[in-house]
Amino acid sequence: MTNLNPRQKQAVEYVGGPCLVLAGAGSGKTSVITRKIAYLIEQCDMPARHIAALTFTNKAAREMKERASALVKGDASRGLTVSTFHNLGLNIIRQEYKTLGFKPGFSIFDAEDARGLIKELMLKDGDLDNDHLNMVQGIISNWKNDQVMPGHALSKAESEGEQKIALVYERYNQALRAYNAVDFDDLILTPVQLFIEHPEVLEKWRKKIRYLLVDEYQDTNNAQYLLVRQIVGDRGALTVVGDDDQSIYAWRGARPENMNELTVDYPTLQVIKLEQNYRSTQRILKAANTVIANNPHTFDKALWSDKAIGDPIRVIKNRNEEVEAERVATEIITQRLNRQARYQDFAILYRSNHQARLMEMKLQHHQIPYSLAGGTSFFARAEIKDVMSYLKLVVNPDDDNAFLRIINTPRRQIGPSTLEVLGRYATERGVSLFSACQEMGLQSQISEAAYIRLERFGKWMMNLSLMAETEDAMRGLREMVSDIDYEGWLHQNASSAKVAERRMENVNYLLDSIGRMLNPDDPSREPLSLKDAITKLILMDLMERQEEEDVQDQVQMLTLHASKGLEFPHVFILGVEEDILPHRNSIEDDNVEEERRLAYVGITRAQRSLTLMLAAKRKQYGEIIDTSDSRFLEELPPEDVEWEGFGTASPEANQAKGKATLDSLLGMFDDD
Ligand code: ATP
Ligand code: MG
User: Fold this and answer.
1) Residue-wise pLDDT tens digits, 55-91
2) Among residues 316, 358, 155, 378, which one has the least CA distance to residue 644?
3) Which among 7, 8, 29, 137 is annotated as catalytic?
4) d(CA 352, CA 583)
5) Whole-model pTM?
6) DSSP letter string over 278-297?
7) Residue 436 forms beta bridges with which residues?
8) Pocket test for ligand 1, best of 215, 279, 304, 568 (most atoms within 8 A of CB)
9) Sorting pLDDT into bands at 50, 70 and 90, what band is 654?
10) Ligand 1: does its nearest atom lie under 6 Å from the Cβ of 607?
């Protein structure tokens, strides 16, 4: 094993028991995991299908799989599992759905779907504003991460308010069941509980996963840690790597204490520390180290690098946010030429997604190609997902996922308990939810009002389906949208009329596109049937998602959170100001330490140059305010920082400038 340092080599070759690699950014933790996978396959003769590695994002998983495959001979890595925790959970649920009592083809509720459902359930109680809704969703999520089931939450509720939330939790879980769906937290919680209740199933999975490796361990939550322990058992075939200074998901239940816990749970744990940073120049590394030194530390880590000193860190202060974005764009244009770099060598990082909008416009204006991680593509918009679900149902009434998405969008007063009965009935009879609505047998099992509503919905949908086969398909679709008063629904649910209008424009854009597919303006194009048009749209949707994953020469735009584990030659961080980084909420909650770790993550992504951007004035919360420089800027080593731009100068530079002015004044007198 060439070019691993001795500690890395030790971590790779230690297979005698559980192993923790605890080390700072860029020290080769992820590299250790990749190399260890290859080592297990080639030196320990472990078949790849018995090895599982867990990472934090799909992107990281893809990269790790590619690297590990490149390190082994031929197709020896076939069958290797590299995935996120959530993906592993999903696989377990998918394979064990019968034991879990799910119907095949269960759906997954993303945070937005889950929020909608909770809102639905809470509307009955009358009290509802956004903050409250967020809080309830957060509490439910925390309960799930801590293995607290609804009954337990109810019994330990200490106030009436808590009791109310526990009840919402209970109904929420029931509703998910009725929808044959799981939410994001369930992807971990469900397997954990399955393994507790069915030791024989756990045994099966233990036989399958004989060695487990976990990257970014500091960000595992309680449930994820339990899952790790269940799978590993007392065999101790486990390697985890992490950096407590990069723990940035406490708000989502991550527990960096899990690092300590390992020592307790696995007394034979081998702890290996890595200290050489291979990523960044001396100056970038020093900046990262001095900033993070302001946090209290459980583990001491001394990172060093033998790379060049490198360019100073630039801090560029701009008149306002527009100039800030413009400046980043022009910097990229000039630096790309001067440094002979590619677009993909540049990354623009920011604290919150909304900061990306202006930046995107500027990049577009300058025709700089970019890719936006986690951006909302056309098909990912809620209104498009809704209308697409109606369309899917029109062409395939048996699409249960589509049925569930729209049965109460807009509201039809078909409650979770009705859906639960409907779901059970459909499973027993082996028919789709849609067909179950039409069956007489259902009538005796639900209230008459509910039955009438379902039946009415079924008939209406049936008519649409018939119409879709005729010349009048387009008219049918437009009638469908007005029948359900989708526009009214958008207005009810949007934060402003303008937002609702924009959403409706998207819907009309979708309908117009379908119209053109059915009756192309261009005579050389074959008109499609509605069914084919919709299938084509579904395919386009899938393809768009695929393309997002393609690597091209593009500037990378991503949130600081999403940048974890990645590295880029040149990094810009936007909005290094108080209230942004550190975020206002964290300042108010006295949680600046987590923000400092986030800044540390951002700084340590940079290999060769780091530019910190800020604006003197910025529109925030609807008004233009004077900003203040982030406290993290003061924590940077002043000798390695160069300030530029609007109204700024480092204290030294200010002093120098003062002297210069004085000198020139004196000079004037001299002339006299
Ligand atoms: P992070 O904390 O940001 O996730 P990490 O500890 O996982 O960082 P890696 O991403 O594995 O670090 O490695 C950082 C960089 O250093 C990579 O470009 C990697 O190829 C390189 N590297 C790692 N080990 C060595 C080594 N022994 N010799 C040379 N380069 C190395
Ligand atoms: Mg890493």
Assistant:
1) 987 778 888 999 999 999 988 998 999 988 988 998 8
2) 316
3) 29
4) 9
5) 0.76
6) -SS-HHHHHHHHHHHTTS--
7) none
8) 279
9) very low
10) no
